Amino acid sequence: MECRNPVGPRAAALVVGLAAVVAHGASADSPAWLTGKELQRQLRQTVPTVHWQDAPLLEAVTALARANRVALLIDRRVDPGQSLTLSPPPNLPLVEVFHRVAENHGLALGWIGPVIYLGPPEAGPRLETVLELRHDEVRKLPANARRPLMEAAPFHWADFAEPRELVRELARQGNVEVHGLEHIPHDLWRAADLPPLCWIDRVGLIVGQFDLAVAVDGNGRSVSLVPIPRDVAIERSYPGGSEPDQTVRQWRELAPASRFQLSAGKIVVRGPLADHRRIAESIHPSLPAEPSSGGPQQTRFTIREAKGPLRRLLEELAGRLQLELRLEEEALRAAGISLDKQVSLSVADATLEELFEALLKPAGCTFRLEGKILVVFPAQRRAAGGGGGE
User: Which CATH class is domain 143-227?
Assistant: First the structure.
């Protein structure tokens, strides 16, 4: 991320008919970045027409992202001035347009919280995967050790910022000792402005661009910068269904970098985070893209006076909707939330999101959908969450 002219030379670029997908009200200098469910809705909006001809990559994708209040960061190892010539088919979802740009330049598109990350084809998937693993490790720490590492805050820096100093300042802000700062070489970066990210992600976004990861000690008060392993993977299990062997064959095509194993009626998958996203999408495709005007109505739900323990109502709803329920029980306990608490649910003509909000919000919980997986966790982590469905 060598610091160059942040705008770069002008080149021919044309974006037509974006009024329908541009979120109004944000200034050009400081957009109010979208996160959670608002971000997911915006990414599903269709782009009527977009055409780039010899446009500098950074200028082109940044303009599209900022117009839609979607935060985007390009890895320091990607040349921001390389020429972009691309005319995607009209009416693609916004997120698909970004994928087309990444494919056009041989880049990897990933997500760090609510931030689109464009990076090298091998390093990019490893970075988002290792950060997801750090999240899993930090969630297992005691609450007082976990809190500063998962605390979310906006993240920005000016032109000519030095990455080593950025990490040093983050260490001061989080009152966390960072070992291995000498592994970050001297560099000068162009400015960036990002929405709230948890402390682990803020540090990880910087050091990951030097193939470094954050290793957290047992008490959470100090971390070390270590090389990202060549083989970094996440292991998750999915329902095997009635024909697990056939499902595995299909998933091998979706996730060629992953390993599969059948165990006790479940399919155990070990691979990068991007593979898990594709598998989750194949289990339960996301809602269709929302056209710029009109479009089919979402399924609506009406429930009158359903009562019982929170866990049981969640299990019943997940079963009826054919969702796999994943409860972050340790985090819920740490937040003082009991899944045995008696709750009631009444909704009329509610969307899926409104249905779960009505059940979970009074109990101090929130959720995200990862394909066909419903993840429930404490509401105070909303600002530090990211990716789909929040």
Answer: alpha beta
